[in-house]
Amino acid sequence: QVQFVESGGGLVQPGGSLRLSCVASGFSFSRFDMAWYRESPGKGRELVASISPTGSPSEYDDDVAGRFTIARDNTKNMLFLQMDSLKYEDTGVYYCMARYHGAPWGQGTQVTVAS
Length: 115
Prior knowledge:
By secondary structure, the protein is an all-beta fold. The protein contains no helices and 10 strands. The strands form 2 sheets. It has a 6-stranded mixed β-sheet with strand order 2-10-9-4-5-6, with no helix packed on it. A 4-stranded antiparallel β-sheet has the order 1-3-8-7, with no helix packed on it. The relative contact order is 0.33. The model has no long low-confidence stretch (mean pLDDT 97).
């Protein structure tokens, strides 16, 4: 059974940092590109960052480039997102996802940036 379990979200002030984690299972993790998405009221679900099977290259949405860093640990089937210099508009539910057609969405983890 393919599963994604996200964690690490929470409430943070603007300019603060969070590190999100995801444990993936049920497929050949090291064979696939992985990605973080976020869902927010204004933009819906959007691709935030992606990473190749070996860890490079990585790609970022323009809104987060320079502030977020995606990483993976293929020995643990884990995906990470280091989020720095957080802004109000980073608020949303964050999901990890394998980039193949039909991959199921996990529950996500809520990130709230507020004063």
